[in-house]
Amino acid sequence: DSKATVSVLNWFYCARHTHTMLAAAAALVALGGVPRPNARQLEYMEDVDMVQFMHYSLPTYWNPGSKFLHGGNPTYHNCKTQDKTTAFAPCMDPDWFQPTHLDTDAWMQDSLALGFDEICLTARHEGGFTMWPSKATPYGVHASSWRNGTGDVLKEFVASAKKYGIKICYYFNPAADGYSVRSKAGPHNDVEKFVASMKGQLTELLTQYGPVNRLWFDGTSEAPEGINRTEVMDTAFELTRSLSPATLLSPYGGDIRNNAAGTVYTSNGAPPNGTTFKKAYPTGNVSGRYFYPTEQHGITMQMGPDGATTGELPTFWFWHDWACVGNRAGCPWVGHVSAASIFEAWVNITGQGNAMLFNVAPDKSGVYNASVAATMRTAGAAINATFRHGSVASAAGVPASGRCEAGMVTVDVDPEAEFDYVLAREDLSAGQRIANYSVEYQPVGGDEWLPLVPPVPKQRSVVGDTPSGQGARDSHVGKKRIDVPEMDGRRHRPGVDAPVTGVRKVRFNCLGAYEEPVHIRQLSLHRRRGI
User: Fold this and answer.
1) Residue 380, CB half-sphere, CA atoms under 13 Å: how many?
2) Edge to edge, what strands does the sheet with 118-124 contain?
3) By CB count within 10 A, which of 82, 263, 357, 462 is most buried?
4) Is the dihedral of CA 249, 38, 436, 457 positive or negative?
5) Is the peptide bond before 90 cis (omega within 30 degrees of 0)?
6) What is the dihedral of CA 181, 182, 187, 189, to 10 degrees?
7) Distance CA 121, CA 118 (A)
8) What is the DSSP letter of 384?
9) Of 31, 27, 4, 35, which is closest to residue 273 (Cα–Cα)?
């Protein structure tokens, strides 16, 4: 049984740090071997590269007063606008929800073109407005005159997702329902009604609008006074596990580790597939008892601190045509991030072995802004051309398994081939085993192995590690590792420097393992294209 295999650690370039790895390996062996993903976690890691957060709900249709229009412009939730003019005050009037051209097929087509594997739609955001005609609350699309009160966004979303093969995820916060707490038309601070409504809505989602691949249980609170929020969240966990055992939960105490950085999948947080909420992100730990796939938020389409700007602009989770730049009058539209920014975010985040979480929201019409849709397609085409649909060179004989040693996998390269990236993937079905690695090359006309991706001096997972060369590197391979070549002590700059050429062979060296055998499923070279 490989779980009982004693780790054999090879540390060719970093011998002075062997004791660190020995200690970690000894701890893992004492636990019966490296932690392994369960079937659903492994499926998620193999199938999901990009996750779309889709903030689309009543706040999309909010027309703010000047106090908000020329202020800091955060995304206000349904019941925090201080609007006192509607029957639902201070919550937004559900009749504001009036999409003119809702087209969920168009959502899927544009999202698929970029490469999204899962879409996480705000089924019920913090204000409590439901995007389906729920029988557990009067505050939702059924309270709008849109389609004479018969509209059902989720029904169309599910049909389109199934049609285009995109996984279904819902943002749903069990402990946040502004309507139930704040609205003069709601039940106010009735704890019993609050919990009953939440359970009814969650039951509808899981039994009528699936299959639900994942639920995103956010950690904010908009609940009655005196309520035990942890008990409410535990109730939601238990109900989900009971009604839909295959549904993954995140981001707190669930099945996926969010806001991760670096390529370590083990943690000492709550065990996956549990029924207990924990308001904390599990921290990566090479000696951790449990395996967690990782996900990192990378970018928001409408410009703001999460949209890869300098932080001087506000963040807009929901799409707002009125978005301002700072506090200047006139409120010029701030636009959105570029295809190049999306491409770089994809390289940096998925290249660390994480799934990339990216917020793209429809506008008031019910489809993506035309410029946004075009940008998504441009970025997706560049990612496909560079990484997904072919490579400059790829190793034969993979997947490969064996001892952790130099030259586990070798790539024969056309001497005239040009490349900008080195991509390696570990088979994680038996757990994360490779602790450090390097990649070497032989130049045309020579047989000496020279550094192409140098070893990391010390086994580690680095917060902020980016394959583009910004900062220190992580020492792990994981689900997917994208590196840029570093030759003669200088890191290559894709898109700036001329592509690397004059290489005849490339090989992958395993320099340290938590357990053997180790498993490599890909080693390939890629030329930056289309961006």
Assistant:
1) 17
2) 248-250, 214-216, 167-172, 118-124, 50-54, 355-359, 294-300, 257-258
3) 263
4) positive
5) yes
6) 40
7) 10
8) I
9) 35
Give the containing element (helix H, strand E) for 122: strand 118-124
The pTM of this model reads 0.90
Give the angle 164-170-173 at the CA atoms, nearest 5°: 175
Is the CB of residue 460 less than 8 Å from the CB of residue 475?
Answer: yes
Contact predicate 18/11, CB 8 Å: yes
Q: Please tell me whether residue 24 adopts helix, strand or coil conformation.
A: helix
- CA-wise closest residue to 188 among 219, 220, 217, 227: 227
Q: Which residues contact 91 (CB under 8 A, 6 or more apart)?
A: 78, 79, 127, 128, 129, 139, 178, 179, 182, 183, 185, 186
CA distance 157 to 111: 13
Give the separation between CA 375 and CA 197, rounded to whole angstroms. Answer: 40
Residue 300 forms beta bridges with which residues? 359
Tens-digit pLDDT profile for residues 364-409:
999 999 989 999 999 999 999 999 887 999 998 888 999 999 999 9
Residue 303: both structure tokens together: 């410009």
Which residues, in sequence order, are bridge partners of residue 167?
A: 118
∠ CA(473), CA(478), CA(483), 5° rounding?
40
> Cβ distance 55 to 362 under 8 Å?
no
- State both tokens at 45: 């890691």
CA distances from 77 to 10, 73, 236, 247, 438 (A): 53, 12, 22, 27, 48
